What we know:
The complex is a heterodimer of chains A (288) and B (306). Chain A is built from 13 helices and no strands. Chain A has 288 residues and is an all-alpha fold. The two termini of chain A are 44 Å apart. With 306 residues, chain B is mainly alpha-helical. Chain B has one domain: MetI-like (MetI-like fold, Orthogonal Bundle). Chain B is built from 13 helices and two strands; from the N terminus they run αββαααααααααααα. In chain B, β1 and β2 form a beta hairpin. In chain B, α3 packs parallel to α7 and α4 packs across α7. Chain B is globular. Chains A and B meet through α1, α4, α5, α6 and α10 of A and α1, α3, α4, α5 and α6 of B.
Amino acid sequence: MKNNILKVKKSGKLFKNFRINIVFLFIFLIILAVICYIPFYIMIINGTRTTTQINMGISLLPGTGTAENYIKMQQSMNIWRGFLNSILIAVPSTLFAGYFGALTAYAFSKFKFRGNRILFWLVLATMMIPTQLGLVGYYQLAGKLHLIDTLWAIILPAIANAGTVFFLKMYIDANVNDTLLEAARIDGSNEFYIFNRIVFPIITPGVAMMSILNFVAYWNNYITPLALLNTKDKFPLPILIALVKGTYKQNIGSQYLAVGISIIPIIISFMFFSRYIISGVAAGAIKE
Amino acid sequence: MGKIRLRKDNYGYLFILPFFLIFLGLQIYPVIYTLYLSFQQYDGISKAEFIGWANYGRLVKDPVFLKAIINTWRIWICNFIPQLIFGLGLAVVLTQARIKGRNFFRAVYYLPNLVTAASIGILFSALLGRQYGTINQILLKLGIIKEQIYFLGSPGWSSATVSTILWWMWFGHSMIIFMAGIRAIPDQLYEAARVDGAGGWQSFWKITLPLLRPIMIYVLITSLIGGMQNFDIPYVIGEGVTLGTGEPQKALLTMVMYMYNTAFRWSNRGYAAAIAYGLFFIIMVFSVLIFVFMQRRDAESRGIKK
């Protein structure tokens, strides 16, 4: 038994004094990891199986129904159109949030104009307001601006992303040196040049980190497009996917396949960016 | 020099201009306009009519809204408490024990949080199917249950199911935030406590928890704000093929769902606006309560130490 008692690394803080059976702990962690991952695995497997195969029992190996599921899925909806719409929404939204967020954060960080602090606090305060509060009013406004059933109605608000401004202001405070800016001014560079060519390259890592998180949030957004779009051709993936429940009642394999197509890109990008995403999430909390 | 400064600082206004145009025009204005609408009788087509506090009068007596409040809180609390326990426990384990592959675990636990909630809802409504649902098949095979459970068929089961899915989506997120908080605690504190003879649990209660209080407030308040606006999963996962019914027996009808249905299904925009402000009021009151309560406990514990 003694061998199983946790041995602690030198800089360990708390566990020096905990006596927990590490084998037990490890098994627990693995079970939890399986619980987190298995629904996605079953999703992928069941997307390749016919409805009959799925109803017959569980399988950990792919079936033979991929083509059939795909054909049935495409008969009543064009999932690639949804994919394209999701990209057409999420990409410009992310770029707007990143660029204008950086520009605004830079102004708040480095320019001493009157009202700087008050306006910054105003932006911060609105982060506490629930996002759904203005939905009904926004729908009415979008109607007056003839934006109903256009992707712009969903993209434009991304120009004012308060969380991005907040994070990037901290980032600029810490990483952009005033003397560098002064030197550029003495050289006669104009302010836009300074921002675009000097400041932006310095803060690119921060913008990138924020952009990954923003992209995921815009990609996943459901209620705003649900309220504002009403043509099927314009629906992004989440709305289209939510419709499969009614569309393929009898064809569960097609349901899994459609959900899989919407989820797999996120899983794949997470494999590449997990480190950035996780440190972005953590940084957001610690700074506040 | 003074001249250059003045000109330079005016660029600040120029740089924040695009942000503030959209911020004021498309975000703040709709919030205020919603407030205005909440005093109107408006169906989206005919002319809006001022009716004073009537929408709010109806709201405080509306049994459906009360049910939506209770549902939203029940779903949130049943997900938040286990989320907090798992998040904190795993954060302690993964930051402090020598465990192989902790970056792997951290990533896997976080993954469900990134995935589209609407897709997750559909995925689970397929997995939880009554007859042939994979989860029922697995549980039967493992001998955990004797007959299929109709997860989305009864109010109790469906509410617990949604809470469980939300727990599954969010415990990794809390864990990451707690991990960052624990890393920020200086090692010397634990060293000193150990020298003084404190055990692991004592260090946890006397050092980790008190120093994590600001992080705890952050997690609690952001989770409350998100939880009160719970929409995507209950909207798509309800019993039957129609979305947004909140069935079975309206057990999954949340506040935002009620607002959405009122505004866009039944076209009662004025009343929907009042529901939105009712939701806002609840979030504000409880955020302030949490903040004040946590701060006071902080002050008390500091007072004792003195």
